[in-house]
Amino acid sequence: MLVIGVITNTFGDHITTLTNYRHFASELLKYNDEPSTNTVYSNSTIYKLVPIRDKLYPSIWGTNAGKNHESKENIGLTISEDDEYQRKKDNAIEEDVEKKECMPEKYDKQEITRDLKAKCEMDPDQYDGCYELMRTTIESYARLQDLSALDFSDLNLVYLTTVGTWKLGIEAKKNKVVESHILPDDKKRLIKLLDDIWEKAGRNEYIHVGASGDRAIGIFGTGFLSFKRYVTQNQVQLFIKMLIDLLPMTDDNEMFNRAEETLSYPIKGMQAAAASMILHALKPFTFPILNSNSGNENIFEVLGVQLDRPKKLETYIDNCRKIKAFRDREFTCKNYRIYDKAAQKWGKY
Questions:
Q1: Helix residue spans in 48-182 (DSSP H)
Q2: pLDDT digits (tens, 9 = 90+) for 55-88
Q3: Would you tell me how many other CB atoms lie within 10 Å of the CB of residue 138?
Q4: How far is CA 62 from the centre of its chain?
Q5: Listed residue (78, 64, 54, 112) closest to 311, CA to CA
Q6: Is the Cα torsion angle 86, 92, 93, 98 positive or negative in sign?
């Protein structure tokens, strides 16, 4: 049996022996959660497991690992470590691209593109009442002189504004308004708006309907209904302050810059999916939807946009810039809900 290396933890405890490079690659993927605590030794080279585009590739720590490989100081790091790391990263990415280019196309990109080019622009307020509801909600928060009382219940209100009434009913939505920290008069105003939108939906005044054809408010499903166990008050306050700042803005790039100030840092319990749902409902022509879309693949990646870790909150704005450049170059429709809906029809392609 050819042994090309082993995987150990930082104490040197043997975990598994690597017998070939396919085995090597598969073992790397097992340690995605805590890559920094695992090291691969192959011959005289020691490797650290590092996340690259949601995958793991070996990056050289140093040479002459031989005898004393328990600590970084014992392996003789060289000045060229960063260069070697970048070289291996680039090579691994190039290999991924080559493999993808050799794979048969899963979808007919030309047909998808033709269909999208033929789409007419979508007026968000004619499509679903959640867009108006989101703007009104953020206007209510903008009237607060002090945001220090805001907590998870306020983030719940903002997030669940986007979620369909087939997941959270109209009365439950009203309860979220009551539980929030907006002013009493704004609570009354928002509840009345909910009733008005619900009645309009019942008169078929919106394009969007629920999955069963019933009236609905909200365009997304969700797997959870509360941020209570996750976010801190400070994170909620910073996030809602960002939404308040974005509300009057009209320039995409300025909005990206402002949002990046907040979203470049982790928010416990929130990734790109939830953030994109909220931001899209507030600014549907600016912020693309990057949720799981009922298990469907990301349409922009299918069409060839090279996104960086699309599920991560911290990379969401950079991905927004890439998607905007692609959309503006290839299509005329601006509302990102059009592209989100197209991804729900993969069987057609």
A1: 81-102, 109-117, 124-127, 130-142, 152-160, 170-179
A2: 343 443 333 333 333 333 332 323 234 455 555 5
A3: 20
A4: 35
A5: 54
A6: positive
Distance CA 30, CA 17 (A): 14
Note the residue count of the chain. Answer: 349
Confidence at residue 106, expressed as pLDDT on a 0 to 100 scale: 67
Residue 338 near residue 116 (C-beta atoms within 8 A): yes
Nearest CA-CA partner of 258 in 249, 266, 269: 249
Q: What is the spatial distance between Cα 290 and Cα 287, in angstroms, rounded to a whole number?
A: 9
pTM flag (> 0.85) = no
pLDDT digits (tens, 9 = 90+) for 147-177: 999 999 999 999 999 999 999 999 999 999 9
Q: Per residue in 280-307, pLDDT tens?
A: 999 999 999 998 755 557 899 999 999 9
Rounded distance between C-alpha atoms, residue 199 and residue 212, angstroms: 18
Instruction: Tokens for 203, please give them.
Output: 């008169």
47, 60 contact by CB (below 8 A): yes
DSSP readout, 234-277? HHHHHHHHHHHHHTT---HHHHHHHHHHHHTS-BTTB-HHHHHH
Decide: residue 198, CB within 10 A, 0-12 exposed, 13-18 middle, 19+ buried: middle
Q: How far apart are CA 103 and CA 92, in angstroms?
A: 17
- Helix (H) / strand (E) element for 62: namely strand 55-63
Nearest to 338 by CA among 207, 180, 229, 211: 207
| φ/ψ bin of 7: left (φ > 0), alpha (ψ from -120 to 50), beta (otherwise) | beta
Span 182-207, average pLDDT: 98
